[in-house]
Amino acid sequence: MRGVFSVAEPDRVRARTVVLVDDVMTTGATLSSCAAALIAAGARQVLALTLARATPEFPDLGIPGRASEVDDFRSGQP
User: Fold this and answer.
1) How do residues 5-44 score in pLDDT, each as one tens digit?
2) Does residue 71 belong to any structural domain of this protein?
3) Residues sharing a CB contact under 8 Å with residue 75, sequence separation 6 or more, in sequence order
4) What is the tally of structural domains in the chain?
5) Spatial contact of 51 and 23, defined as CB atoms under 8 Å apart
6) For 41-63, what is each residue's pLDDT tens digit?
7) What is the pTM of this model?
8) Could you list the residue range(s) of the whole structural domain that residue 26 is in?
């Protein structure tokens, strides 16, 4: 995601605090890339709010030593 986002109107963020809102944060790459673009455009501070945080361990279905994959749920085989 590095370098993907840019700020079309830097004057609107210069010297301001900007709040990014994302529904689900998985790796944080999107938020990091957006924040970097905003800081480069002159934002004073960037805060991020997310509704949920995805983790590779969830859900593990209680199987010791094994985290379930998304494909496991599509096939019905945990």
Assistant:
1) 999 999 999 999 999 999 999 888 899 999 999 999 999 9
2) no
3) none
4) 1
5) yes
6) 999 999 999 999 887 665 555 55
7) 0.68
8) 1-55
